[in-house]
């Protein structure tokens, strides 16, 4: 299983945004693209998608930009994955919709896929942006206190 590059970039951008959490200025895609190395068109696309998913609050126009909609400690990697990829579903068996599978009539594994799916989602939900925003080798700061503020 591998997440898409778009999801990886979304985690990178939101982690950078988490490091700026608590600052007065709104963030923008250009600033985060420069800071992270994510291509600007990709950053702009993700800002739109993350705003639609409710992970960031966005304001257009002069003085506009965006901020995280919740504290970094309240946004998990599962939230980001689902914002970009859609629901975390390991196999079609977990999806409630109809699917084509020649084994579905007598599959003995199908009843267990929900447990596998929940384990994977739980692992992703156990990691927050606040945890990823902390520089390795430093002590974790409070989720309410920015570890770095733009000058």
From TrEMBL:
Q: What protein is this chain from? A: Transcriptional regulator, BadM/Rrf2 family
From what organism does this protein derive? Sphingomonas palmae
Q: Which Gene3D superfamilies does the entry link to? A: Winged helix-like DNA-binding domain superfamily/Winged helix DNA-binding domain (1.10.10.10)
Q: Which Pfam families match?
A: Rrf2
Any one GO molecular-function label of the UniProt entry: DNA-binding transcription factor activity
Entry GO terms, CC: cytosol
**InterPro entries the UniProt entry points to:** SUF_FeS_clus_asmbl_reg, TR_Rrf2-type_CS, Tscrpt_reg_Rrf2, WH-like_DNA-bd_sf, WH_DNA-bd_sf
Q: Which PANTHER family match?
A: TRANSCRIPTIONAL REGULATOR, WINGED HELIX-TURN-HELIX TRANSCRIPTIONAL REGULATOR, RRF2 FAMILY
């Amino acid at each position: 299983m591998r997440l898409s590059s778009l999801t990886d970039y979304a985690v990178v951008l939101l982690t950078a945004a988490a490091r700026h959490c608590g600052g007065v200025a709104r963030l923008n895609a250009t600033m985060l693209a420069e800071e992270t190395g994510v291509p600007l068109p990709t950053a702009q696309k993700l800002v739109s998608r993350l705003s639609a998913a409710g992970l960031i609050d966005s304001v257009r126009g002069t003085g506009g930009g965006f901020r995280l909609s919740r504290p970094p400690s309240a946004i998990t990697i599962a939230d980001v994955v689902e914002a970009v990829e859609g629901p975390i579903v390991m196999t079609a068996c977990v999806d409630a919709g109809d699917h084509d599978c020649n084994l579905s009539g007598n599959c003995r594994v199908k009843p267990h896929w929900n447990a596998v799916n929940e384990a994977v989602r739980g692992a992703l939900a156990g990691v927050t942006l606040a945890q990823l925003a902390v520089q390795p080798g430093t002590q974790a700061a409070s989720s309410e206190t920015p570890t770095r503020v733009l000058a």
